[in-house]
């Protein structure tokens, strides 16, 4: 960052006594370009028949399929969840597999977990983690070993390549703590307990064409990465509990009262919110089906990458619909009055994303208020959001936005947090105005981000989440990619070129798993722009932008026109187009763009402009579209009063 504004010393305009371009004493010589520059081609993986040169899946693309049939029981007296899963694993890879890796993410809650011992997770409360009660295939016990949050399951008969399948059974249980637990939890409220249950069952790890098994442990920073599958889940809970979950409820008549079933039917045809169980009704036993014993809720969900649920005896429940999608909210009275709007907020956010990017493909969407501040799962999101309308809409649109990234476009969250948090924050930026008419989004502004870059010790945004400092998580994975994509969309490519490219990325990779190179390639091929400099400068490195207006010299021509020469330097590693705004004495302005290609050969660019009216000022990036870290060297004003 430069501390001295230098241009003001030399920006003297001489019209009546023209002089030749005057050399500024301090004017430095542009540096010679090294052979590898910010413009050099990216070193991306060689395209192949699985992932092609255009960033599309090729003819040999494959991914694994994992289907789950689960029976689980919630016991509020002990806070225990007990489950049984029948897991069917389909090996679509070209390789035979002799063992499977499974995620046992509740083991993060153990006192001896990697997350706790590495200092990544700082908590006081611990559990035994996930306890595997049995693991078997056709009634025969399977050998397995547990390594922190991963388990390796030995298969007596390998699962064959190209469509081979196996089915096995697992029984497990774990305790839900009342306290600080990541991405799930329990909240005690006045009228009962709210359970939010996620990352809770033994789930087969991803096996893919890039890394083989995804065995990065669950330490706390990286969220989750799993294959698509179909789920049938039966959840048994006390009769006075309401359960909401990923997927479609199959036995409404058994778990709601007749009156509530009528209300649910009404909600299915209503864009307005219909109350299913009101605040007053929560304390009324008649608001739950009469009879004895627990109730079992059956849910089905297809093509999802995990399954999450929530249960409470204190839930107020309301719903509406958007075409074929049933939208609902479940919350305790502590979330009122803000949560009266939750269902409409959820609906508004989905309408916006449908229109702008890709239609929401799932039959349900549910917002839950409990202990978790904000976390996303397919068709269900956990949003605390009880303080302000802006806070609740912000977290709701963010968490449901995750249903596009990474629930539909399935990315590796243990490695590439920017591909879900960043892309999502980018689409959220445009979603704010859908609820707060005329208001700007958060986390998309290049100018304020530039100040943040200067005072923050940044690492490349492509850093894996568990390897980047927690304190810059929001800046790095959410804000920086969002700012970058807003810049690319609005000021580099323009929406006409950006939007079709970004939509092509989503459509192409919906229900598949792209890698970073696939994204870069689709965006370049579809928009028709070589963006190596942009990906390298903004996504892969931590370089900063400083454009400098070095010199403005005008000279009157014989025919009366004025010829002005403007010298612009690019002082740092990062490059961007440079917009020169020229304002003339007659009130007119011109914006001239120096394209990024100007920096191919030199970090100095000289523009010549012929004009009639006297030049009053020149400003670089007057609209603050680019993240220039030092704006003190961006402006030139004609000396006043002008020489006659
Ligand atoms: Zn997020």
Could you list some keywords that capture this structure?
8-stranded mixed beta sheet; binds zinc ion; 6-stranded mixed beta sheet; alpha+beta
In the CATH hierarchy, the third-tier topology of the domain at 7-18 and 546-637 is known as Immunoglobulin-like
Q: Span from first to last CA?
A: 37 Å
User: Which radius of gyration do the C-alpha atoms yield?
Assistant: 29 Å
DSSP strand (E) fraction? 25-35%
Work out the number of β strands.
31
Please state the average pLDDT score. Answer: 93
Report what the structure shows.
Helix content is 23%, strand content 30%. α9 (417-435) crosses α11. The chain has a domain at 7-18 and 546-637: Immunoglobulins (Immunoglobulin-like). Mean pLDDT is 93; it is low at 1-25. It is built from 14 helices and 31 strands. β27 and β28 form a beta hairpin. With 644 residues, the protein is α+β, with helices and mostly antiparallel strands. The strands form seven sheets. It has an eight-stranded mixed beta sheet. A six-stranded mixed beta sheet has the order 17-20-21-22-24-23, with helices on both faces. A four-stranded antiparallel beta sheet has the order 6-7-3-11, with no helix packed on it. It binds zinc ion (ZN). Zinc ion is lined by residues 398, 402, 421, 424. Zinc ion binds at residues 398, 402, 421, 424.
